[in-house]
Amino acid sequence: MLSKIFNNKHLIFILLSIILLFILIWSTIGSRNLSWPEKFLKDTVSMTQGIIYKPASKVAGFFEDIRDFTLIFAENKSLKASLHQYSQVVAELNQVKEENKRLKEMVDYKESVANKYHLKAAGVIGRSPDRWNNMLVIDKGSKDGITKDMAVISTQGLIGKVYSVSNFSANVQMISDSEHGGFVFAEIQSQPLSYGVIEGYDPITQELRMNKIELNAEIEQGQLVVTSNLGGKFPAGILIGEITKVEQYSSGELTKTAFLKPAADLYHIKEVFVVEKDFEPEVISTTAASSTESSESKKEEN
Amino acid sequence: MHKLAFNLLLFLLFIFEGTIFSYFSLDQYGQSIVIAPRLSLILIIFISIFNHRRYGLIYGVILGVFYDIIYGKGLGIHLGGLAAIGYFSGWLMYFFHPSFIIFVIIEIMGLFTYEIYLYGIHRLFQLFSTPFQWTFLHYLLPTLLFNVIIAILSYKLLNQIIKEDEEEHA
């Protein structure tokens, strides 16, 4: 019976389409620049998404507020308590800043341009419905100056990085995406500082995995992890999370592995900030090259 | 078939999956259980069974491209699954007469195959690395249950749309 319905033509067609499909997936997988038909489709759909997501978030926010009413009294109390501490911290901070400034002047320290950046606010207009991949769609795109691999943060900490950009929208791959691979260069605030790479998310324990930490690094539970300059694309000092567990010798490797709890709330997100680095290596190198050229030409003139 | 109505419905369901449903996701409360809405797939299977498998294939391809471009990591991942399930659920009508029971059985098979296919292909291309057993219990089963219930509840409504159309054409 099968052979009647599935004749040879059909079978060959199905096999060919499976092969073509795999070639298509294999050639387009990963973070890449979108072609214009894709951009067009994505912009059109994301416009509709924006129309629906924003009222929906208002309604959801209203119900969240109602739920929070019960907690407000206790929260207010604890906030007042921490406010007293805050004023003291501010005073201390001012003192330290002043001292820092004075010391910098003493050693003739120049502020490095590598760590200057500014934030660009963007609204969230969609989220992948399943957790096979964890994407946010935001309503700012290449027309607003967003490019691939920029860091994306909320007020609480790092959320992810820009995965693909269209004209008026962009996809953000969240840190809770379970794809493996070098994701973010990170710095542990231990004494002395130690470095590693955040390499993926474990949905079972809901923790981030940080690999390639030096064996003699003195890390322990509760230390904070921030982004590092070493990757080149991210600015330093954005909070990623807090260490919850340290694996001393991970399966015969010569490095340590730590597990982090992400600092940012990865679910109730309405607005994110895309971090734009002012520092661009190409520009710096060209100006440096031109300045050396000009100095050389001056020498020649002399 | 009332094409415009189904086109619009399919597009709206696709949009709802990524916007409104993200507020009902369980994992925002610290749960590790994930329920992924597959409303558009339910509708594609319905069209494929009660209308023609050709439409199942066409809608599957279109919706697959939408998924891949808007949420996916590569062209073809959702496209292959949705197109194949859209086509073969209608193809099964060579053997069965379309009815409510057959609809439910094929919905269960289609939704289950789709999730297994997604798990397999994400494992294959190393986009996902969690063991199968855990994923089965926390991702696949809750998703399947939720969507089958939605499919059963929406059967009557969808049937009405198709019947009204047939009456109009007759």
3D shape of chain A:
globular
Shape of chain B: globular
The percent range for strand residues of chain B is under 5%
**What is the number of helical segments of chain B per DSSP (H or I, 4+ residues)?**
6
- Number of E strands of chain A: 12
N-to-C series of helices and strands of chain B: HHHHHH
The CATH superfamily of the domain at 184-262 in chain A is: Rod shape-determining protein MreC, domain 2
Which stretches of chain A of 5+ consecutive residues score pLDDT under 50? 281-302
Strand content of chain A is 25-35%
Largest sheet of chain B: none
Unreliable segments of chain B (pLDDT under 50, ≥5 consecutive)? none
Largest interface: A-B, 47 and 48 residues
Measured as a percent range, the helix fraction of chain B is over 70%
With strands numbered from the N-terminus, the spatial order across the biggest sheet of chain A is 1-2-5-4-3-12
CATH architecture of the domain at 184-262 in chain A: Beta Barrel
The rounded Rg of chain B comes to 16 Å
By CATH, the topology of the domain at 184-262 in chain A is: Thrombin, subunit H
> What is the overall number of helices of chain A?
4
The biggest beta sheet of chain A reads: 6 strands, antiparallel, barrel
What is the overall pLDDT average of chain B?
87
State the share of residues found in helices of chain A, binned by percent.
Answer: 25-40%
Characterise the protein shown here.
The complex is a heterodimer of chains A (302) and B (170). With 302 residues, chain A is an alpha+beta fold. Chain A has a domain at 184-262: Rod shape-determining protein MreC, domain 2 (Thrombin, subunit H). Helices cover 39% and strands 26% of the residues of chain A. A six-stranded antiparallel beta barrel of chain A has the order 1-2-5-4-3-12. A six-stranded antiparallel β-barrel of chain A has the order 6-7-8-11-10-9. Chain B has one domain (35-169). Chain B has helices at 3-18, 39-50, 53-70, 77-91, 100-124, 132-169. The N and C termini of chain B lie close together (12 Å). Chain B is 73% helix and 0% strand. The relative contact order of chain B is 0.14. Chains A and B meet through helix 2, helix 3 and strand 1 of A and helix 1, helix 3, helix 4, helix 5 and helix 6 of B.
